[in-house]
Amino acid sequence: MSNNQDNLETKLSDAKAVAGGMLSKDKHVSAGNQTTAVEIAKTGSVKDVILWLLAAAVLIGATLVNQYLPGYWQPANDLWVRIGIIVALFVFALLCLALTNQGRAFKTLLKDAAVELRRVTWPGKDETFQYTWQTIVMIAVVGLLVWLLDNFFNWFVGIFIG
Q1: Residues 116 and 130 in one domain
Q2: DSSP of the chain
Q3: Are residues 83 and 161 in the same domain?
Q4: pLDDT tens string 68-98
Q5: pTM score > 0.70 for this model?
Q6: Where are the transmembrane segments (predicted)?
Q7: Which residue range(s) make up the domain with 33?
């Protein structure tokens, strides 16, 4: 009995180690402690501040391109050139934000969310059909109750107002 229990505990600890390894691919490991996305996002550096300020300045510049750039640069009179510049500035700002600690934490969060989505058990066709009809019926019942209450309160207020 204890041999089976020891085997089960060993298998459980191995499974936890494998699951921990799957979830912590891009997380920093230091002295056996795993750094979570929240801990990464809370850390800051001078590089992060500079990148955040640069991204903010570039996004503000992107909002001003359409109004001011055609007056200073002849090719910017073309609509597609302005759209291309705005898109390029937006992509540059996103790249700057991705290079911050918060951006790395967001990428880790997205990867963890993708792992969790693979574990989701999605409903089948019959379950979806059943839940859809239940939802439609409940919406109709609640709509009818709200309509009845509205008519009642209109009638009730009409008695006092005259």
Answers
A1: no
A2: -HHHHHHHHHHHHHHHHHHHHHHTSSS-EETTEEPPHHHHHH---HHHHHHHHHHHHHHHHHHHHHHHHHHH-GGGGSHHHHHHHHHHHHHHHHHHHHTSHHHHHHHHHHHHHHHHHHH-----HHHHHHHHHHHHHHHHHHHHHHHHHHHHHHHHHHHHH-
A3: no
A4: 999 988 998 999 999 999 999 999 999 999 9
A5: no
A6: 49-68, 80-100
A7: 26-120
